[in-house]
UniProtKB/TrEMBL annotation:
UniProt xrefs under InterPro entries: Glyas_Bleomycin-R_OHBP_Dase, Glyoxalase_6, VOC_core
Residue spans crossing the bilayer: none
Ranges of Low complexity composition bias in the record: 32-65
Protein source organism: Nonomuraea soli
All residue ranges annotated as the VOC domain in the record: 87-208
Annotated protein name in UniProt: VOC domain-containing protein
Entry superkingdom: Bacteria
Location of the region described as Disordered in the Swiss-Prot/TrEMBL record: 1-78
């Protein structure tokens, strides 16, 4: 047909009957019936919803699934194979007296108060507790600290620590001696009890 290009043996493009370009054996793109681009081996082609799908030897599709038809991002995979942004370095609790709070938790968990650690500068407004399990608790001084009030949604707990114990009654007595305040004993029918530390943060003693 006059005006049409036919490819040579080395590869080129020739139009189809509708005037569209069809790739030679060397690979390329050709439009689908709907006008979308479909690749040859080693490229990408759009799916029905307009999303990119890889062909053999091409780019890898989304590991966590394709976007929805609305264009929303796929959900992150909920598995051990998910790539973490980082690791949990510490948990920080606010209070009016960081050193006193660190010593309180040492009485409950053991460990070493204010061990030298290049990650933190110790001082009047910062104390640490390195626990034998490898966890580090940090305590930050806040002069106008407003402690959470258990059961008050206006001053919620936001977070709390669960401390596993073998003997709940014995742990209860030791916690009170260290300065804890019992908030909820569960009427003796539960395997955990709720307390507040000296700065007002709630925590639980939980029978293992």
């Amino acid at each position: 047909m006059i005006g049409e290009n036919e490819s040579t043996a080395g590869g080129g493009n020739r139009p189809t009957a509708g005037g569209e370009n069809e790739p030679s054996a060397g690979g390329g793109n050709r439009p689908t019936a709907g006008g979308e681009t479909e690749s040859t081996a080693g490229g990408n082609r759009p799916t029905v919803g307009g999303e990119t799908e890889s062909t053999a030897g091409g780019e890898t599709a989304f590991a966590g699934g394709r976007p929805s038809a609305s264009g929303a991002e796929p959900a992150l995979p909920d598995s051990d194979d998910a790539v973490a942004v980082g690791h949990l370095q510490t948990i920080v609790l606010d209070g009016p007296d960081p050193l006193a709070l660190a010593r309180f938790y040492r009485a409950l968990l053991g460990g070493e108060v204010n061990r030298p650690d290049r990650r933190w500068s110790l001082g009047d407004d910062w104390a640490t507790l390195h626990i034998g399990t490898g966890l580090v608790l940090c305590f930050q001084g806040v002069p106008d600290h407003r402690p959470p009030q258990w059961g008050d949604p206006g001053r919620p707990q936001q977070l709390h620590l669960d401390i596993g114990v073998t003997d709940l009654d014995r742990a209860h007595e030791r916690a009170l001696t260290a300065g804890a305040v019992l908030l909820d004993d569960g009427d003796g029918r539960r395997s955990w009890r709720i307390y507040a530390d000296p700065a007002g943060h709630p925590f639980c003693l939980v029978r293992d």
